[in-house]
Amino acid sequence: MVAGCGKSADQKANEAYANSVCNAVGSWETQVKNVASSLSVSSLSKTGLQSKVTQIQSATQTLVTQLKAVPPPSTSEGSAARQQINKLATEVTATVSSVKTAVAQIPSNASAVQIASALAPLAPQVTSLASTADSTVKAVQSAGGSLADAFKSTDSCKSLTSSG
């Protein structure tokens, strides 16, 4: 043990993993929410919309890379958390891909009405991205055990679940 710290190596590994995951998710959520809040049908062209989707896709690729780069603690809890987090990565990637496909199908000379009707079903998908991430963190927190405790006590995770 480190003097004055009182934490075991397992606790430190759990907290480091929780912190890395929650920081990556928090950063990604902020980027997605900023892009989503800047979407406005009145000022949007197909090119503008594609640019926004590309920003979300880039942020999502960064998130997936960060999540996969962080090794979970080598415990059954770590393995279970990794499964939840891999599922999150798959879900957000699939959602972003379907949004990108839908945007690509908008005609180049689309009117604001056509863009609005194309955006209508996409908006809930983009909005649900952040809640999917928050749900994953909450699922890991409710799994029980020392890793769940780390996901509950780490500041970066607390700020995620309190704002979601």
Protein model, in words:
The structure is a single chain. The chain is an all-alpha fold and 164 residues long. Helices cover 80% and strands 0% of the residues. The model has no long low-confidence stretch (mean pLDDT 85). It has helices spanning 9-37, 46-69, 76-104, 112-142, 145-153, 155-163. It has 6 helices and no strands. It has a single domain, classed as Four Helix Bundle (Hemerythrin (Met), subunit A). The protein is elongated.
Short description:
The protein has 164 residues and is mostly helical. The chain is built from six helices and no strands.
CATH topology: Four Helix Bundle (Hemerythrin (Met), subunit A)
- Listing every helix as H and every strand as E from the N terminus to the C terminus, the arrangement reads HHHHHH
Domain count: 1
Give the number of helices.
6
Shape: elongated
Calculate the mean pLDDT score and round it: 85
